[in-house]
Amino acid sequence: xxxxVAAMLEMLNIPYTxxxxxxxxxxxxxxxxxxxxIHHGIPTPKYQVFYSRxxxxxxxxxxxxxxxxxxxxxxxxxxxxxxxxxxxxxxxRIAYIIKTYNQPALVEEYIxxxxxxxxxxxxxxxxxxxxxxxxxxxxxxKGINKIFSYEAKWETDSTxxxxxxxxxxxxxxxxxxKIKRIGQEVYKIxxxxxxxxxxxxxxxxxxxxxxxxxxxxxxxxDCNIPQAAKLYGMSYNEMIDKILNFALERxxxxxxxxxxxxxxxxVTQELxxxxxxxxxx
Length: 281
What we know:
By secondary structure, this protein is α+β, with helices and mostly antiparallel strands. The chain is about 40% helix and about 20% strand. It has 10 helices and 10 strands. The protein has helices at about 1-10, 20-30, 30-40, 85-100, 150-155, 160-165, 175-190, 225-230, 235-250, 265-280; strands at about 45-50, 65-70, 85, 105-110, 115-125, 125-130, 135, 165-170, 195-205, 210-215. The strands form 2 sheets. Strands 5, 6, 7, 8, 9 and 10 form a 6-stranded antiparallel β-sheet that branches. Strand 9 and strand 10 form a beta hairpin. Helix 1 (about 1-10) packs antiparallel against helix 2. The mean pLDDT is about 90.
């Protein structure tokens, strides 16, 4: 419901940081994003959408394949079992996604390679490309796929969570520049505002495939964007100020640096009240 919040703020004429409701709604739809990327000539893995497990598999798709919910975020529905190597497992996983999440399954060719994150801050032509971060998987046991799955993101007791880490991506200069250029292009095409993150899979033969774009990505201290900003030489507070100032400039609001102090207890109570309103609506 993230797009709904942005839409309500717009209806109430309340300024906010981050992308608008249309971009948020578009980027949650992985299939729509891929259609847009292909239209603009941006490399993305070949794919097929399944509304039923019985649909014939496109003969141009080659195993291994990866099966995802088509309209979920935060790697929900993406587990180690999402990577399939034969038709039987493919059909089983498609059926699971459709039944569990009540939405079509997105089937992509699995790109064997490196997981890269491209952070971008800013608007229009005033963009900052942050250093490219990589999700590194250290000595995974046999049978565990190198994908940034739900377990890898959230399940602290899982093997892959314990074995994965963020690191500055070591890339040839030309490839680093190419991936950052693609990231900025995708950022502009999807009309992202203030800050965003592009997920790229770099194949073993050096081709960067865009998987998806995350508008309003996580910006808590342990998330990818703050870590990339740190590599850029930007403290956490400086990064937050950058995002705020980009939004102020976008709205034409003067930055008078006036701070309104409120007791933490009052802010917390307001958040609780908002949550209750949302739950009851």
